[in-house]
Amino acid sequence: MTMGSRDRVELSRTLGERIAFARREPDDEKAFTDAILAQLREDRLLWVVADEADAPALSIGDTARITFNIARLSGSAGLIYAMHMSQVLTLVRHGGDSPFFSELLRRMVRDQVLVASGTSEKGVGGDIFGSICTIEETGSALTVTKESPNISYLDHAGAILVSAMRGQDNGKNTQVLIAAEMKDMDLQPGHAAGFIGMRGVLNRPYGFTAKFGEAAIFADAYPVIARDTMTPSIHIFWAALWSGLASSALEKVRTCIGKSPPAESDVADVMQSEFSRLVDKHYAMNALIRDAVAAFDNKESVGAMGIAHTADVKRLKVLCSDLLTEICLGALGLLGIRGYAETGGYSLSEVLRDALSARVMISNYRLLTSNAKIERFVEEHL
Ligand SMILES: Cc1cc2nc3c(=O)[nH]c(=O)nc-3n(C[C@H](O)[C@H](O)[C@H](O)COP(=O)(O)OP(=O)(O)OC[C@H]3O[C@@H](n4cnc5c(N)ncnc54)[C@H](O)[C@@H]3O)c2cc1C
């Protein structure tokens, strides 16, 4: 029987019911995230953007809805799903039909393999277009050695997409993307400082050397892949994950107002109207995501849409991360000490810590500066 998109979005909505985890303590974040990933694999939700015999590929919008549903349970699982999905979409849209990529895709879909991201690099900061590592060639054997400031979920990944420079015959370098399998990687894990949030994800710096063949290099140049697929999709999926976090924070406030409204009626009125203002912000966030999904769907090549679209993709990231912060801090204000508590049904501890990652995962300042430079050439229209 063919599985429709509704079925899989619905399956993600009821994910929590299928995870055997009786209670959650602060130290359980990693175990809980791992249990969610195992269930996603069991439910075959890890490669939904690829066609399968009994399940046609889902749209970006439905994949974002799944990300939202996962993040309502766990920001860490939502982050892994979001990042993995942008890598998977890159493989599906840019791998082409070469024997190497066809076979890789077939195995990855079959085994529901997680794909990590190796784009950022020490020495160039968060500028993903500024690789300094270069592919080395010894006969037909290719290697690349890279120092990454952080790679997420390598304990679960079977493959990683790595950006690097490649020398050309004309003496110039072009930036390419490589599909490397973990079995062909030599890893030197760095010291994990530990992050404030997203504690369900193994996050740490790595030095690594990847071995691969010529066929593992994507035919499209990395800047094209990044602009057409990787960047717009990661910003949509991240924003969907943040919308899920916002939803968890708002749900706690909704429950609190319903179950234990303040005794003084004027305080209850203020709480209700402040809550409604927070829901407005969540609505704005979701409207921005839907708009970005429509823009993604409406163009085969996003690059063809020019600088206005590139600017909008950055605006989505900056605005949604700001809205998430405002919603979480607003929820904390309304819940008071119950929200500030480390544990308990109204605790915002995990959500707040996870939410803080939003503005640093590609610095908002970097995106704002980049947009500021082109703003005089861009006009927003209705
Ligand atoms: C939870 C998490 C998971 C991650 N997972 C991965 C992963 O799996 N794979 C991967 O490749 N990377 C990953 N990263 C790294 C991420 O993609 C970025 O590369 C990294 O967050 C950028 O580091 P940075 O803050 O040093 O920013 P940089 O961009 O290097 O900037 C350094 C500092 O300068 C500031 N700055 C930058 N530009 C400007 C500007 N124009 N104006 C003013 N100030 C500026 C920044 O705010 C920052 O304080 C992850 C990061 C986080 C937080």
Heterogens: flavin-adenine dinucleotide
Distance between the termini: 42 Å
Number of helices, counting only DSSP H or I runs of 4 residues or more: 11
> Going across the major beta sheet, what is the strand order?
2-3-7-6
Q: Can you tell me the number of structural domains?
A: 3
- The rounded Rg comes to 21 Å
CA-based shape: globular
- The fold-level CATH name of the largest domain is Butyryl-CoA Dehydrogenase, subunit A, domain 3
Q: Topology as H/E string?
A: HHHHHEEEEEEEHHHHHH
- Portion in strands: 5-15%
Sheet/helix structural class: alpha+beta
* CATH class identity of the largest domain: Mainly Alpha
Query: Mean pLDDT, rounded to whole units?
Result: 93
CATH architecture of the largest domain: Up-down Bundle
| Parts with pLDDT < 50 across at least 5 consecutive residues | none
What share of residues is helical?
40-55%
Number of strands: 7
| Main sheet overview | 4 strands, antiparallel
CATH homology superfamily name of the largest domain: Butyryl-CoA Dehydrogenase, subunit A, domain 3
Description:
It is a single chain. With 382 residues, the protein is an alpha+beta fold. It folds into three domains: 5-111, Orthogonal Bundle (Butyryl-Coa Dehydrogenase, subunit A, domain 1); 114-216, Butyryl-CoA Dehydrogenase, subunit A, domain 2, CATH 2.40.110.10; 222-377, Butyryl-CoA Dehydrogenase, subunit A, domain 3. It is 51% helix and 14% strand. The chain is built from eleven helices and seven strands. The strands form two sheets. The chain has a four-stranded antiparallel sheet with strand order 2-3-7-6, with no helix packed on it. A hairpin with a 2-residue loop joins strand 2 and strand 3. The radius of gyration is 21 Å and the shape is globular. It starts with a helix and ends in an 8-residue tail after the last helix. Residues 83, 116-120, 125-126, 148-152, 195, 198, 203, 357, 360-363, 365-366, 369 line the site of flavin-adenine dinucleotide. Flavin-adenine dinucleotide binds at residues 83, 116-120, 125-126, 148-152, 195, 198, 203, 357, 360-363, 365-366, 369.
